[in-house]
Design brief:
The protein is α+β, with helices and mostly antiparallel strands. Helix content is about 25%, strand content about 10%. The radius of gyration is 23 Å and the shape is flat.
């Protein structure tokens, strides 16, 4: 994945961007990137640091800058948590899932299928 357009810090191997921590080497295709929501997941951070070829000093600096830039979300209000545990506060309804698109061209040659066009 290409680097996010908002770049806050660039090191030798890592960059802190609007998407989180991203590896500068684009040949990795975003395999080692860490999203903003997972910056505080210590297991994920340790697994990325333990990978072969990772510059640990640069990674630690990027992690420090990213955690300062994107602070951990605060804990929810204890009163709201208690009301939710009692069932007073309802959770938002889940959005209905769209049906999966079904392809009906299996086992047929494409040149014999009818063509479709978008009507304007």
């Amino acid at each position: 994945m290409a680097l996010h357009r908002d770049i806050f810090w660039v090191g030798r191997q890592w960059a802190v961007t609007g998407a989180g921590i991203q590896a500068i080497d684009q040949r990795l295709r975003g395999v080692l990137d860490i999203e903003i929501a997972r910056l505080w997941d210590d297991d994920l951070v340790q697994s990325r640091r333990a990978k072969a070829g990772v510059n640990a000093v640069d990674f630690d600096k990027a992690l420090t800058v990213a955690r300062e830039r994107f602070p951990q979300a605060s804990a929810p209000d204890p009163i709201v948590a208690q009301l939710a545990a009692l069932g007073v506060v309802e959770a938002p309804a889940a959005s209905p899932a769209l049906p999966a698109m079904q392809l009906r061209a299996e086992g047929r040659l494409a040149r014999f299928l009818p063509q479709w066009r978008v009507r304007r």
